[in-house]
């Protein structure tokens, strides 16, 4: 099997800080021509975006894709809801987890897989403020330990 390269087009940096990601899912996204060109050129942001289940479909809301400069008449609204492409049983499984357990669907990144644009969705649970502080402290302690280990190796 051929390994496909994965080029990240935009990344949600705050998602893993604000949420505990329990599971990730890869989904396709319905885009139009100028949106694809704009994303490939680095004109996308998923900072405050989220996914929502409506009926038997999942939509990605609040994703900003900048209008493509060369496409004058065919540009769409930058923050319109975009449909995600998943199998029906996958949508059903995600929607039951979101309803029953109070979880959230958060986009973690938008990337190229071959010639297709994919979205990495995270099934996540929100962190409390003290959990965020503890995670930052743990990361600082880990960095300090690594610095000490380097200094011992050198000296």
**Main β-sheet, spatial strand arrangement:** 1-8-9-2-7-5-4
Q: What's the architecture in CATH terms?
A: Beta Barrel
CA-based shape: globular
The helix-and-strand class reads alpha+beta
Query: What fold name stands as the CATH topology?
Result: Small Protein B, Chain: A
> What share of residues is helical?
25-40%
Arithmetic mean of pLDDT: 87
Write down the Rg: 19 Å
Q: Which regions are unreliable across 5 or more consecutive residues at pLDDT < 50? A: none
Q: Main beta sheet, described?
A: 7 strands, antiparallel
- β-strand percent reads 35-45%
- Say which CATH homologous superfamily is assigned: Small protein B
The first-to-last residue Cα distance is: 46 Å
Number of strands: 9
What's the number of structural domains?
Answer: 1
CATH class: Mainly Beta
Helices, by number, come to 4
For this entry, give a set of tags:
155 residues; alpha+beta; Small Protein B, Chain: A; seven-stranded antiparallel β-sheet; two-stranded antiparallel sheet; 36% strand
Polypeptide structure, described:
This protein is of the alpha+beta class and 155 residues long. It has one domain: Small Protein B, Chain: A (Beta Barrel), CATH 2.40.280. The chain has four helices and nine strands; from the N terminus they run E-H-E-H-E-E-E-E-E-H-E-E-H. The strands form two sheets. Strands 1-8-9-2-7-5-4 form a seven-stranded antiparallel sheet. A two-stranded antiparallel sheet has the order 3-6. Strand 4 and strand 5 form a beta hairpin. The longest helix is centred in the last third of the chain and has 26 residues. The protein starts with 5 loop residues before the first strand and ends with a helix.
């Amino acid at each position: 099997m051929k390994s496909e390269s994965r080029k990240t087009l935009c990344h949600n940096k705050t998602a893993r800080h604000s949420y505990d990601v329990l599971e990730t899912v890869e989904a396709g996204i319905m885009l139009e021509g100028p949106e694809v060109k704009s994303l490939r050129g680095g004109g996308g942001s998923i900072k405050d975006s989220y996914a929502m289940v409506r009926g038997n479909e999942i939509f990605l809301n609040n994703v900003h894709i900048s209008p493509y400069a060369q496409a004058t008449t065919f540009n769409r609204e930058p923050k319109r809801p975009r449909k995600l492409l998943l199998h029906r049983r996958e949508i059903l499984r995600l929607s039951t987890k979101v309803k029953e357990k109070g979880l959230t669907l958060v986009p973690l990144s938008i990337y190229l897989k071959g010639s297709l644009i994919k979205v990495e969705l995270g099934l996540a649970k929100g962190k409390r403020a003290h959990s965020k502080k503890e995670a930052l402290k743990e990361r600082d302690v880990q960095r300090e330990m690594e610095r000490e280990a380097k200094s011992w190796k050198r000296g």
